[in-house]
Amino acid sequence: MTTYGIRDVIGPFMVGPSSSHTAGALRIALMTRRLLGAEPVEAVFKLYGSFAHTYHGHGTDRALVAGLLGLAPDDLRVRDSFQLAKEAGLAFSFHPDDKTQTPHPNTVDIRVKDASGAVTEIRGESIGGGAAQITAINGVDVLLTGQYHSLVVKQKDVRGVLAFIAACVAEMEVNIATTKLFRERKGDVAYTVMETDDPIPPAIGQMLAANPKILQVRIVPSDRSAESAAPISEQEALEEGLAPTGFGADLSAEEASLLFEAVDFKNGAQLLSFAEKEHLALSDAICRRERCLLASLGIAVDDTHRYLGEALQVMKASATGPLTHPKKSMGGLIGGEAQKLWQQMQKGDGFGDSLQTRAVMYAQAVLETNASMGRIVAAPTAGSAGVVPAVLMALQDVYHFTDEQLARGLANAGAIGMLIMENASVSGAEGGCQAEVGSASAMAASAAVELMGGTPAQCLEAAAIAIAGLLGLVCDPIGGLVEAPCQKRNATGAANALAAAQLALAGIDSYVGFDETVTAMYAVGRSLPFELRESALGGLAATPTACQLCGACAPGAQPCN
Question: ACT domain spans which residues (predicted)?
Answer without folding.
Answer: 150-225
